[in-house]
Amino acid sequence: MYQMVQVGLEGAAxxxxxxxxxxxxxxEGSTVLWERDPExxxxxxxxxxxxxxxxxxxxxxxxxxxxxxxxAVVFDAAAAAVLATLEAQRRLAAEAWPGExxxxxxxxxxxxxxxxxxxDFFGPHVNLAARVMSAAGGGQVLATAAVRDAAxxxxxxxxxxxxLGRYRLxxxxxxxxxxxxxxxxxxxxxxxxxxxxxxxxxxxxxxSVLIGRNELLDRVGGLLERHRLVTLCGAGGIGKTALAxxxxxxxxxxxxxxxxxxxxxxxxxxxxxxxxxxxxxxPSAGSAGSAGSADVVLDLGATALRVPPGPHRRPAEALTxxxxxxxxxxxxxxxxHLGAAVHAxxxxxxxxxxxxxxxxxxxxxLRHRHEQVVEVAPLSAGAARALLCERAAxxxxxxxxxxxxxxxxxxxxxxxxxxxxxxxxxxxxxxMAPADLxxxxxQPLTTAAHRTGRHGSLQAAMxxxxxxxxxxxxxxxxxxxxxxxxxxxxxxxxxxxxxGIDAGAVRAALAALVEQSxxxxxxxxxxxxxxxxxxIRRAAAERLDAAGESxxxxxxxxxxxxxxxxxxxxxxxxxxxxxxxxxFDADWDNIRAAHDWAVSEDDAALSGRILAAAEQHxxxxxxxxxxxxxxRSIEGCTVPPIVAHAIACRWSVLAGDYAAALSHGEAGVAxxxxxxGDAADGDPLDLLGxxxxxxMLAHCHTMSGRAGDAVRAAEETERLAARLDDERGRQxxxxxxxxxxxxDDWPSVRAARRALIEAQERYGSPRMRANAAVQRAMLAxxxxxPDLHGALALCRAGAELARPAGSVFDEAxxxxxxxxLATTLGTPDAAExxxxxxxxxxxxxxxxxxxxxxxxxxxxxxxxxxxRACAVVFGHTREHHRFDAAGIFGSQPVDEVPVVxxxxxEARAAIARGAAMxxxxxxxxxxxxxxxxxxxxxxxxxxxxx
Length: 946
Hints:
The chain has 946 residues and is of the alpha/beta class.
């Protein structure tokens, strides 16, 4: 160990322990370098020490120890430490090193207090600097926010701090925000950090402080350490969701893969035994999940956790597969109305992997064999008073006199410590004195609460709040319960009006409900959204049932959402596309509920209208859930809408499952023939569905190499489109023809694609312009001779147009085609194009044209000499994607890769291994191998330059 030198570090700072800036360094891969050439490494290490120590001394630092083959350094000034690291990296990169490989040093900087002892520094801040260093790659300098902030206070020169995000470092409990330090004249090198990024979570934003629940928080947290399923039980409005959110926020510190919140309230109309609506039958094995089944819960869970389905798998199956090996907590909020469905879903989730934990909230226990139940009691008198006073203070309604304080005490006692009731009472204090409010909580309410047991508290809270409303306000409140996930003003007026209540009365009632905090508001870029808190909505729904209005309102809601979706679909196809997307985003829960209700009522026509309206938005945004809706419609309706078959076919293509796509397309065609045939009065929705089935069959036959079948399917599409005589039908015909002639009729393809492009540009929507760029790239790719460079430029332009347009579909197409073209041309950044395309596919679950993406990756790996990885990719592609995108994006690896694999004696085993691997595993392997070839190429180029 070097003797610590105290020059420049004496005085007041030494006395109080800093803060100091610590630098820890290490040589990347030093163990391998020592083994390969110990003599060269010995000389290199001596030179390394001289260079680093010279830079340290020049910038006022002190070497106080060694760490392996690196140094531990302390600086008084953060800016000086930063400049020292950059100068050291510059000198190290310029050095001519002995041996075959250069010396690459990783460096970590952190700043904090510490005290010297026996010529060394100890403590958590020194340790953290070492952990920051271990996250860096050779040639990189990483720093914490403490260093960045201190250094920027006295600018050290032309230095950039690249924000890299928050990471979990080994042995450090709290995630650390890291910055890449580099000269402003050169970009950050962008290599992945050697640490896990901070876990993602979809927990709602932290709200107000949870009052009176600390002991319960500790108890629930302790149970979750020892058990995998904990259920919070209690009356509606008791605060189960708030408690679960607080527990979940604490759990983030110990769950490697995060904490995820699944709001089951959006599924409340799939059947509720407590609400008096019968549960629907369990689905048959392998179904998409009808109401009451575990699949309905798991589908919503897959959406919340952002897990896309894969080939041959629905969202529920993809979720359970994805959970294997992960360590996370899933919060299932509001379970009571789903009964056996949640019970079955919990079993599947727990069986998915030992690291999966569940925290449920429910009015009743799940009765699961692994369940630990925590009864959530009302707040204590002190906590209730504290909550009421805090909420009153937020509303500028703090009691000013002893009489008002006494009234609040009595109010808390009468409300039984129910958080929801207290929140509602606090809201009334904006316009009502405490004594007046207390007078309206008459004795029968308290008695009723005690008599009806655990449901009484919510009933009492709703009864006293309900008595403050006028007749119209009561009617509008119960009618609002039909909406899921919020509502805009127009929808509220349309659905809640009727029987003597006009739109103006709905508006006035809505304003009164907002004022009394029975309805919450959220301002968006496209207007105000209104929402009933879930306990209030459930109580209001019970009153809707009691009034005999449930069926009428459910149909009014479903019909309105079908019309709203159709209007939004018109916007999606226009320059106002963003507005249409915003409608779908805001009302997706309502549209889902409307579709589920249509299926539950066996209303195939309404189901088909909703599916058809939502299709384009969902397809280009790759909302996988719509495929599950189509399956539910097919399985749940006595005579399913033909458009559901078309959507199921299209979504199977999107996942890359051509066998399922052919099955759905043929089923739709058979249904059309049996139902309508060539009748002159064919229903337009059936015509559209049949045309969609034929168009997708044309695509499937082309991808599978059946040119004759593709042509016949395109002809059928054109025949039905002529009967439809609208723009959507004509687009389907152009789409079908643009694929069907790929094998032997290029002029037909060219004409169809040009017509498709012209129509897309007439729409004027950003998404259609992005797709037009992709179509132009395909034309350039398939011309004779092909314009590959022009096609590549169009692909990249298409990706740039697709991102702001929110078109996941077109971005994926652009990236995959760019990778195929780049590898065909042998461009310098071909490997980077492949990584970007494959990473996008992995993130979105996009499967169509995946053969082209794997083909590009195979060519890039072969060109880099990574033959075994290439063989795995080739084997998987030949087995699962042989015809996928043949002749569209680029040639397949089955055409050319075996030539380079023939020289490798282990290629046959690698090919067989790839054929047996799952898609996700092959994607991971290909991306990792491409990263490795890129890193090796960069190192070789740097060595050659020296």
